[in-house]
Amino acid sequence: MRRPIIAGNWKLNKTPHEAILLVDELKRELVDVTGVDVLVCPPFVDLSEVSDALVDHDIALGAQNVFWEDSGAFTGEISAPMLKDLGVAYVIIGHSERRQYFHETNETVNKRLRAVLKHGLTPIVCVGENLSQRESNKTFDVIKDHCEGSLSGLSVEEMKKAVLAYEPVWAIGTGKTAAPQQAQEVHVFIRQLLGKIFDADTADSVRIQYGGSVTPDNIVLLMAQPDIDGALVGGASLKAPSFSAIVKGAKK
Ligand code: 13P
To answer: 184-197 pLDDT, tens per residue?
Structure first.
């Protein structure tokens, strides 16, 4: 049985001051929630204060990116040991916005992934097709390419520690959620692929989140799909009432 996992990807939103207000509200709203892994992924500059605010609370902390080297002359970058020292437990890797705007490739995703695993953090690896790829029936080719490229060289043990997120680019921030069956179809494809690359046990145990316009209104039907194990939430994670409603709706 895979435990549901709901992550809030705040993207480029919330100053440190605003972040604390949101986290304080979330702590109140989610105080009685059990059976779901919950995490928030604020911008780097918020991590320290949010980490302090989450001490002794079940909400975990994630980062939105990481560099692959531990230290050195890499101006502007942040490393896995730095994140770990702050109490970060998860790192989103290969988000489509990073692929689209910041030249992220399968190769760089793979380097980040190895760094995250080396330091005992949990990666959330994002894959997903854009609109023209979907319309030209290339969805499965793109997913295969993203999975094979990003996960290249991982051992079974490493893969079992990772979380995947299927985020169709056309559904991100557009209000167009993939229909639950449409998402389920891709999640099954990913799981079968994991079975081929790794083994059946790994395929069965890895959690696959769906992301793209998830709201309190669609979370229940999405989570009702057998291969959807959680959600990576953007816009609706920026307000405590909507994010906590999604967490509560995610209990299988
Ligand atoms: P939205 O929920 O705003 O569509 O964003 C999804 C996403 O990109 C999460 O990583």
So the answer is: 999 999 999 999 99
